[in-house]
Structure formats: C-alpha cells, structure tokens
Amino acid sequence: MMKKLKITFFDIFLLVLMVGVIVVTLYPFLNILAISLNDATDTARGGLHIFPRQFTWANYQEIFGGTADLWSAFVMSVLRTLVGTITGIIASTMLAFTLSRRDYILNAPISFILVITMFISGGLIPEYLLIRELGLMNNFLVYILPMLLNAFNVIVIRSFIDNIPMALTESAKIDGANDFTIFWRIIIPLSLPVIATVSLFLAVGQWNSWFDTYLYARGNANLSTLQFELMKILDNTNISSGSVTSQSAEFVARRTNPQSIQMAITIIATVPILVVYPFLQRYFVTGLTLGAVKS
C-alpha cells in the first residue's frame, strides 16, 4: 500500500523560495531576449517585460546584414575557442600532474612561480612588446599561446589530482605502466569533473575575448572574432550624454535603435555558451574515486 506524501509548511516555503530564485535568475535574460525581438519603436515606449509586444527580426537582420562579415568572425571565434580550450586543458593538466608528483624536485620552485604570477603582473605594455618580439602580431597563435597556461587553473587541477588515491598509480606502476600511461589511462578519466570545470572557464574566456584581437590582430581581417565585430557595432550604436549620435540616428531610421541592437548583441554572444554548458554540467560532480580503493 502506497504511503501518502506528507507535505509540510517548510516544503511549501522552500518551493516558493526556489520559484522566486528561478524567476529572479531568468527575468534579466528573458527581458533582454524580449527587447532584442521587439520592434525598436515600440521598445522606446518602455514597459517591456519577458514577451515582445511587436515581434520582429529587424534587430538581428541589422547586425548580420551590415558590412561586417560576422559569419567568418563567428567561425574564427569558434575555432579559437575549440583550439584554445583543448590545448589549454592538455597543458594545464600535464603541468598539474607533474606538480602533484611528490618526487619531482622542482615542485616547490615552479609552484612558487605560478602563485607569484597570480599576484604580480608585468602589465599591458611589456606584454605587448613580448608578443611583438615573438612575432605573434596578426598571427592565430596570439589567441592560443598567451592563454595556454593559467596559474589558477593549474592549481585547481592539481588540488583535484592530489585527492586521487596514490594506491591507484602505485598499482599501475607495479603492472608496468609508465607516467604517460598513468596520466592518460588513470588521471584523465578520474579528473573529468575538474577538467570539465576548467574547460568551461577556458571556453568562456576564449569566447568572450575581444581585447586581444584589438591589440594584436587588427591588421588581419581574417583573424577578426565575433566579439570584436560585435564590440565595434556596439560602439557605433552607443548614446553618450543622452544625445543621439548620427550613427544612432541612422539606426533609428532603419527602425532599430541602440538599445535593441545592444540586447541582440548580448543574446548572440551568450547563446553559444548556454548551448555548451548542459553538456558539461553532468561532470560537475565529485567523488568519482569514492570507494575505488579500500584501505
């Protein structure tokens, strides 16, 4: 006989609280989406919430129908995100695994150098001079090499690897596995949660980056990224000091306005990350090694 579900006052309170949290979390995004899909003239009236009053694709058509080649910029952003994330994960995980080895004699000095870089930076000018001297100006590698290693990511991965029971690697060594085999066959599979987390950090950083394109790759139109092109469009549609610029007036004449364009740009920049996140979310768990080894 099935037991009746007992609902307490606390359960109701918790349900109402969670619904409130969901509404507060989703409302800003839904409001931005509604403005981006609403007629610009109607948007100027205000009072728009989560549904567009006069649906239109004009704002997106204005962005993708302009002079900027956003499609090639989109491909470049995807390419730099994929390559940058994969190479960054491989480099960070290999370094973290090396530093997790207690018998590595350079463990302490390298760890100290990594930590120092989190507090002290050379600054923008030395970085620019270094990039120029390395011949990375207007080169695709300028998107990859400077972001290849991040001290925070290495420390996070190393902390996770330190929690993996030593008995696993020791038993693998007894069976004849070398360090490379241990890394690919044991460390990588057991570190999927932290790898997924750091991958998301790297992917978001690569996808949202536009300033490096402005500094180092402006001379090569083929290296222009989506974020950089959207930033240029956004800059051309800004309203300063409450006055409408000539560029803004042109957008109004086309039945679009700066606010609508800005909201559409926000959606374009955000949606790809939202699409990728659910595939990584299932790895955001801990304790994969729980019970793997019994002491």
TrEMBL record:
This is Putative ABC transporter permease protein. The keyword Membrane applies. Belongs to the binding-protein-dependent transport system permease family. It comes from Amphibacillus xylanus (strain ATCC 51415 / DSM 6626 / JCM 7361 / LMG 17667 / NBRC 15112 / Ep01). Pfam families: BPD_transp_1. Its main location: membrane. GO terms for cellular component: plasma membrane. The chain crosses the membrane at residues 12-30, 70-97, 104-125, 140-161, 182-204, 261-280. Residues 74-280 form the ABC transmembrane type-1 domain. GO terms for biological process: transmembrane transport. It comes from the Bacteria. It is a multi-pass membrane protein. Keywords: Cell membrane, Membrane, Transmembrane, Transmembrane helix, Transport. It is found in: Cell membrane.
